[in-house]
Amino acid sequence: MGKWLTVEEKFELVMKHRRCPSLSQTKLARWAQTAFNLSRAPLTNTVKKILQSASEIEEKQRLGITKRGRDVASPELEVALKSFVDACEADGVRLSRKLLAQKARQILAGLPEDTRPKMALSVGWMTNFMARHGLRRLGPWKLVPLDISEKQSIAVAARALEGVPIDLLINNAGVCENHNLEDTTSENCVRQFEVNALGPLLMTRALLPNLRLAVSARGSAFVAQITSRMGSVADNSSGGAYGYRASKGALNVFTKSLAIDLAPQNIGCLLLHPGNVNTAHGNFTGAVEPEESVAGMARIIACVRVEDPLQMRHFGKGDVIDW
Ligand SMILES: NC(=O)c1ccc[n+]([C@@H]2O[C@H](COP(=O)([O-])OP(=O)(O)OC[C@H]3O[C@@H](n4cnc5c(N)ncnc54)[C@H](OP(=O)(O)O)[C@@H]3O)[C@@H](O)[C@H]2O)c1
To answer: pLDDT tens digits for 225-281?
Structure first.
């Protein structure tokens, strides 16, 4: 017999459905099994019922009415995580939910096995932890509007970030127009080139002062370009997608020069293939969930060194994709 889903888990499932509305109930059930570490996937009927009572679940979550209530499930975790938050605040380090969750997992793993509580550290648990400690202001430090295909917009964004050290710049914006030989036009090629190739190059150049500030403070800084294996000449076995393939190929070429030019300043570059991700990019037909793709890329970024040779790396295990 599988365990019942907690309110927190049901809430996460509802949120997952909102983020990926095209996921079928069977896929949602499989996602829940992995995400909540269940011995078996919930029945699709259970998923259906949860989605039907979404507003009720959201209200319970908002009020902190969970199976465990607002009680502290692990005082050790609570104290250790709070002191981490305090230390970060004292050092002026900005925290995100992701960082907090990572730290919580680390603390939990460090507790003796016999006293370690079984906790999913869900979004709901994090919300309750933040509520208990009045941490309402976690989130992006600053949001800056940007159209990466517009020189003027890049300049305005760079001005808004003047004097801010940036130790990791991730150029993620991208457009994918799947044109074949018949409908490829100079206009759709140029549009994709501007967003996928030129944009990341100009953005990197505009934020060089910020990357250099981070180098002064911490010794190194990195630029991660979210490319695609579709930009690989060697990997192209299906043709088509002229403008997209060429733009990602150009991004790889630009980044090779950036890597050579910036290494002496202790700024390293990465080229990451995020996988076939379930996003708007491919009409939500991708096999990899965004969380999995991001977690894989984050693992690669965490291990990179400036002196590493530039290669196109697969998000999964960091395998090199021939370009
Ligand atoms: N999904 C995949 O299977 C896949 C595979 C290989 C590579 N990639 C690459 O991964 C990256 C992320 O793609 P995704 O899957 O998350 O696709 P997505 O869901 O379509 O997201 C693309 C993002 O790029 C932003 N963007 C597009 N044009 C922009 C512009 N001119 N200025 C600023 N932002 C712009 C979009 O912002 P708005 O929402 O505001 O439009 C959106 O946030 C892209 O570089 C893509 O080429 C994706």
So the answer is: 999 999 999 999 999 999 999 999 999 999 999 999 999 999 999 999 999 999 999
Is residue 297 within a helix (H) or strand (E), and if so which, with residue range? helix 290-303
Verify that 14 and 119 share a domain, yes or no.
Answer: no
Q: Assess whether 284 and 225 both reside in one domain.
A: yes
Please report whether residue 141 resides in a domain: no
Q: How far is the CA of 80 from the centre of ligand 1 (A)?
A: 37
The domain of 116 spans: 75-132
Q: Are 270 and 313 in contact (CB under 8 A)?
A: yes
CA proximity to 302, closest of 268, 279, 273: 268
Residues 276 and 315 sit within 8 Å (Cβ to Cβ): no
pLDDT of residue 219: 96
Say if 140 falls within a structural domain: no
Cβ-in-10-Å burial (0-12, 13-18, 19+) of 148 comes to buried
Task: Please work out whether the CB of residue 224 comes within 6 Å of at least one atom of ligand 1.
Answer: no
Q: Is residue 1 part of a domain?
A: no
Percent of the chain surpassing pLDDT 70: 93
Could you report the per-residue pLDDT of 91-120, keeping only the tens digit for each?
767 787 878 888 999 999 998 888 787 777
- Residue 19: CB within 6 Å of ligand 1? no
Q: Residue 61: CB within 6 Å of ligand 1?
A: no
Q: Number of folded domains in the chain?
A: 3
Same domain, 128 and 219: no
Mark whether 123 and 266 lie in a shared domain. Answer: no
Q: Is the CB of 280 under 6 A from ligand 1?
A: yes
